[in-house]
Design a protein that fits this description.
Arc Repressor Mutant, subunit A, 5-stranded parallel β-sheet, 4-stranded antiparallel β-sheet, 2 domains, 41% helix, alpha/beta, Rossmann fold, 224 residues
Length: 224
């Protein structure tokens, strides 16, 4: 999943970004509300973590403007404002969740999962197709009951494919959702990682799940 972190404290921003990347997320970050709004209007993020007290445009106003434009990206406010009135205001402005600093990083990850599940209409953290399963809470991936070890980026790519199973996904769409703005790799990065996944997911199995749609991209689909 691709996450935006909007936090004006450089040290905290850096810590959150590093921890999210370590969990396999693609992450972009900014330091004020106006930048956050620009990012959220430009890219289809799976979720945004937004501080309230930011320069240029505070988080409340940024989210209000975002919702006015019909953008439904899940937003979690992460802020030092801790009164009930603050929480009510934040949720009424359009946030999906509200966390108070200091916070537990494990809880933040769980709330990201919950917010994105709701956005997808999924009741659980478990995604599956045919005999392939992925548990978003534990990051355990299994094919035919056998656990498969993936790198963080391989896992992120597989999760994205599973969350959009049976849909044809262009290379550009995959790259936009699995890699962040600061990626400086080659232009064939999607093809390279699809090849890695095929070797781990499909090799040795008679039913192939990862399919190339010539001239467009890829689709995760169970063969009939």
């Amino acid at each position: 999943m691709r996450i935006l972190v909007a936090e004006d404290d450089p040290a905290l921003n850096e810590v959150i970004v590093k921890k999210l990347k370590a969990e396999g997320y693609a992450v972009d970050s900014c330091f004020n509300g106006r930048e956050a709004l620009d990012y959220l209007e430009a890219v289809p993020y799976d979720a945004a973590i937004v501080d309230i007290m930011m320069p240029e445009l505070d988080g409340l106003e940024a989210v209000r403007k975002l919702r006015e434009k019909g953008n439904l990206t899940p937003v979690i406010f992460l802020t030092a404002r801790d009164t009930i009135a603050d929480k009510v205001t934040g949720l009424d402005m359009g946030a999906n969740d509200y966390m108070v600093k200091p916070f537990s990083f494990d809880e933040l990850i769980a709330r990201i999962r919950a917010a994105t599940r709701t956005a997808l209409g999924s009741p659980t953290n478990l995604y599956s197709i045919d005999d392939l399963t992925l548990d978003a809470a534990t990051h355990i991936v299994k094919r035919a009951g056998r656990e498969i070890t993936l790198t963080a980026k391989e896992y992120a790519l597989l999760e994205y494919l599973l969350r959009h199973k049976n849909k044809i996904l262009s290379r550009r769409k995959i790259e936009d959702n699995v890699w962040s703005y600061d990626y400086e790799g080659g232009s064939n990065v999607v093809d390279v990682y699809i090849a890695y996944l095929r070797k781990k997911i499909d090799e040795g199995h008679p039913r192939k799940l990862i399919h190339t749609v010539r001239g467009i991209g890829y689709r995760l689909k169970a063969e009939e």
